[in-house]
Amino acid sequence: MGKKSRSKKRSQRPSPRARPPRRLSSRRLPALAAAGLILLLIAGTWAWVRSRRDEQQDAVAATVQAVQAQIAAQTASAPTSEPTLPPNIGPVTGCVHRPAFVSRLNLGDRILIGTNLKGYTGLTLSAQQSDGRVAVYQHPTWDDAGHLAAYALDKDGNIYVAPAPFVSLENNPLEEQNNIYKIDTNTGVMSLFIKLPWAQPPNTTNPYGVMGLTYDCDTHSLYASSVAGSTYDEEMGRIFQIDLAAVSIVSQLEGIDAFGLGVYRGVLGKRLYFGSARNSSIRSVALDETGALNAEQRLEFRLLQAPGGQDERAKKIQFPKRDEMLIKAIQFNYTLRAASDFQQHNYTYRYVPAKDVWEFVQVRLHSGVE
Fold first, then answer.
1. 333 pLDDT exceeds 70?
2. Do 181 and 195 form a contact (C-beta atoms < 8 A)?
3. N or C terminus: fewer CB in 10 A for the chain?
4. pLDDT for 150-163, tens place per residue?
5. Could you give the strand order of the β-sheet that contains 357-366, starting from the edge strand earlier in sequence?
6. Residue 82's pLDDT is what?
7. Are 225 and 316 spatial neighbours (Cβ–Cβ below 8 Å)?
């Protein structure tokens, strides 16, 4: 029998209903509009910030280039040997030259004056020779006053020097510590020049007398500082102006313990700069046309406040350049010490005429004590 064909009926799925398009709720329209506005504001702000940043960078680059060009122009036009200062500004020791007797010693051109050369008592002259040797000369009279420290030269080449005890008083009697000695430019002989008066005599607690000396070519004056008679509680030192021609004291200040001295002519006239023997301050007083000392002190600066500065005393104040002050400073507390115990720092300051002040430049440790 023939089989009947079965036709499989496929189940047909109902076709999905077409969904109507979703309509935005009227409540969401304001929120979306606000979000779009915020995005536009953010994008606009970012573009403005980038634009301003680019403009600022361009401005900074232009400024840097202008400053560099200005510095290059100033460097090219400025003299390298002398600072740009009024002609009357600077130190007052231009007339000083070396003693006449030195030419007979055949030591050479570069001669160093020393008062603490190892193995010697008193003043010495030394110079390095062509073969590397160091030649040393000392006149027989240069150790007559014991150990020496401060010295200054005048326009004729005379050397003025003061005693200072080291370690002991064996070579430096107390009663002689306020003396100043003179080494004659022609003969080289050292002899007593002047005895400075003290408020109180030196003592074993403070055995020091004259501490600093400096010279002024304009008035042919020698300035000297002394701490004779000062105690821990009382400052009884003095600063003297000495007329070298008359060998007499023509002006003095009382109650000041000063160490190193130096005269400099600034925009407002000449001043005597001095370092305190009691702290790290550098002070000054005005000088009149005769070189007389004015009693009103001006604080210039303190070594301790300089970057890298120490609580030291200005042993020497020098002006190696027209606008430069060099301070050689050591520890000091009025007690006897060996010369080898002192550590010296050299401080450099630069004069600013527009402000009549000294600005710190640098401080360096110096090998040895000068």
1. yes
2. no
3. N
4. 999 999 999 999 99
5. 313-321, 324-330, 344-352, 357-366
6. 52
7. no
Give CA 87 to chain center in angstroms.
23
| Residue 345 CB partners (closer than 8 Å, separation 6+) | 309, 310, 312, 328, 329, 330, 363, 364, 365, 366
* Residue 148 tokens, joined: 């020496």
Give CA–CA dist 116/242, Å, rounded: 25
Q: In whole angstroms, what separates CA 76 from the centre of its chain? A: 27
Q: Rounded CA gap, 292 and 240, in Å?
A: 9
| Count of alpha carbons within 13 angstroms of residue 85, beta-carbon side | 22
Least Cα distance to 275 among 295, 292, 290, 297 occurs for: 297
Q: Rounded CA gap, 24 and 317, in Å?
A: 90
- Lowest mean pLDDT, pick from 66-70, 259-263, 296-300: 66-70
Tell me the Ramachandran region of residue 167: left when phi exceeds 0, alpha when psi lies from -120 to 50, beta otherwise: left
Q: How far is CA 144 from CA 81, 162, 171, 228, 274, in A?
A: 42, 12, 9, 21, 28
Amino acid identity of 164?
Answer: A
**What count of other Cβ atoms lies within 10 Å of the Cβ of residue 255?**
13
Q: Supply the DSSP string of 312-363, one letter for each residue.
A: -EEEEEEEEETTEEEEEEE---SS---GGG--EEEEEEEEETTTTEEEEEEE
Q: What is the pTM (predicted TM-score) of this model?
A: 0.77
Q: Which residue has the tokens 């190193």?
A: 260
Three-class DSSP category at 293: strand
Cβ(71)–Cβ(194) below 8 Å: no
The per-residue pLDDT for range 334-367, each reduced to its tens digit, is 998 765 567 899 999 999 999 999 999 999 998 7
Q: Which two tokens stand for residue 13?
A: 């799925």
In a 10 Å sphere around its CB, with 0-12 CB exposed, 13-18 middle and 19+ buried, how is residue 98 labelled?
Answer: middle
Sign of CA dihedral 134, 138, 143, 148: negative
